Amino acid sequence: MRPIRPLLAAASAVAALTLTATACGPTEDDAQNKPSAPASQPGTDKIQIPQDLRDRLKEHGIDLDKWRGGEWKNWDREKWLREAKDYVNPIIEDLWDPDRMRDAERPDKPVKEEDISGDEGVTDPTPLPVRAKNVKTPYHDNAAESGKVFFDGPEGSMVCSATVVQDPARPGKSNMVWTAGHCVHAGKKGGWYRNIVFVPSYNNSGKPTSELEKASREEIAPYGVWWGDWAKTSEQWISQGGATGGQGAPYDFAVIHVTPEKGSGGKSLEETVGSALPVEFNAPAVPKIAAMKATGYPAAPPYDGQKLFQCKDKPGRLTIKAEQPTMYRIGCTMTGGSSGGGWVATGKDGKPALVSNTSIGPVTAGWLAGPRLGKEAQAVYDAVSRKYAGQ
Questions:
Q1: H helices present in the chain, as ranges
Q2: What sign does the dihedral 296-298-302-307 (CA atoms) show?
Q3: Is Zinc found in the keyword set (predicted)?
């Protein structure tokens, strides 16, 4: 096993922070890579590889068969695709088996604390810790939109949390997932992560780790494994995002468009799980929000990444840099692995809506912060929706 530590994120002048999730697991990928089952076409289970995906790989001198056979493990700077248009993620069937998913969730090293200065914006007092509570099982009955994102980076297999969101171009048939930018792209010093998948209602029955060691893939992923055939994050995260210092955190969001690994009988992700949350941009200012609920699969100690948790608290404000948008902040004891998980509040129509996602939190795991979703976030969301409109 190869030791992996969580990716880091930043701190303010009053507290040291780290990106709570990309809580990495200590795994060396020794899984056997099998031939890919490309994206299913809408309304069928016929497997085809989109031509644009082949073309993008070819532009970078990447042979698709070699990629699926292990070339994806080459993290040479020239092979690590970086630009927004470079995202490629060919399906490698059965790559994410139960052991690989489970092992991706255990961080094994403490995170170094790192201060940042220049906090001249609006920052409210540090909130009191709110103890994360177990989501009642089965998770699908109580948080059907929630799940886990698995992906590979230069240091090994990693994990985040994510949420199924509505697609305005395909009402009732969304294949869109909301997560953090750092769960799909390494930021200014790297590129797109690889083998990105979404697993809704991971470990739906909340089995302990000891039982999961013998669990089948169907038990761990009862609603299937969905590969990200397209992902988009903010240009600010791509140009500014960093593993330390909190750079780009106010723009740390992403949308993934997914397709089933082995077909879904023509059903979309939303139809498969039975639910998707609306996304509300430019949510009310902090004083007008009574409470936000954050959901995720924390993986850093004392958690092990196998169970779903939630925190509910009235949000405060956190500013990383004065010239950047102020972030939401709530008290919460969730740790690495919960990054990307959705924050839900009462929307303008009185119904639950996604208004943020977990981005950063302190080493001591007492609170979490997430970006306020403004015009940049809406541009990312709309672009993914438009790309697949009519399909």
A1: 51-59, 64-68, 98-103, 139-142, 209-212, 217-220, 235-240, 269-273, 375-387
A2: positive
A3: no
Lowest mean pLDDT, pick from 112-116, 294-298, 313-317: 112-116
Question: What three-state secondary structure class fits 205?
Answer: coil
Which pLDDT score, from 0 to 100, does residue 54 have?
78
Count other C-beta atoms under 10 Å from residue 137's C-beta.
16
Whats the size of the chain, residue-wise?
391
- Please determine, for residue 36, whether its predicted confidence score (pLDDT) is greater than 50: no
Note whether 150 and 96 are within 8 A (CB). yes
Structural domain range at position 228:
17-387
* Beta carbons within 10 angstroms of residue 299's beta carbon: 31
At residue 229, the 3 state secondary structure works out as strand
Mean pLDDT of 177-183: 97
**CATH code for position 30:** 2.40.10.10
Q: Is residue 47 in some structural domain?
A: yes
Q: Could you tell me which of 298, 273, 266, 263 has the C-alpha nearest to residue 148? A: 298
